Amino acid sequence: MDAYSARPTPAILHDGSAWRRLRKEDVTALTEAATRKAFYRDGLTDEQIAENRRVVEISASCCEAAARNAHQRFSAAFVGETFAGYMIATRHGPDDLELDWLMIAPAFHGSGVAGALMAAGLDWLGADRPVWLNVIAYNQRAIHFYRKFGFEIDPEAKASRLVPNLIMRRPPDGS
């Protein structure tokens, strides 16, 4: 058996089942760890650093709200008893489908957790539907990961955020 096939398959729980297994502090701590590497770089302004901190501060309330919202899906991944990551997908409208949050604990990068959460989100949004997402412009690891799922940078779309973001889109057929 090679190392890839020996990786444990994460358990993915959704909405209330996922939220009941967590504490707000769990989500905040995971988001802090996940954003520390991906959202920061040299040269950020004080305002950009504050915006990154805001993401951490609102993460638990966003997850809790998504778990209760019929237009959102909150999914959490667990490897054994360990909280490994989460995803929020949002149906803003019939043709406005967003992969809104995807946060993975750094210890689980490359473990298949992100792929399992991505698949759960895309399945819920509709595997054959167009989907969009925001990504930190300098987060090359995330951009590369999203491309594996058929997302490409939309050069026409503008994301008005303090921290530079790109919008990536996945076409209706998922390719």
From TrEMBL:
Domain of life, per lineage: Bacteria
Transmembrane segments: none
Molecular function in Gene Ontology: acyltransferase activity, transferring groups other than amino-acyl groups
Signal peptide: none
Pfam families membership: Acetyltransf_1 (PF00583)
GO CC annotation: ribosome
Record key words, sorted: Acyltransferase, Ribonucleoprotein, Ribosomal protein, Transferase
InterPro entries in the record: Acyl_CoA_acyltransferase, GNAT_dom, YpeA/RimI_acetyltransf
SUPFAM superfamilies: Acyl-CoA N-acyltransferases (Nat)
N-acetyltransferase domain boundaries: 22-173
The keyword Acyltransferase appears for this protein: yes
Protein name: Ribosomal protein S18 acetylase RimI
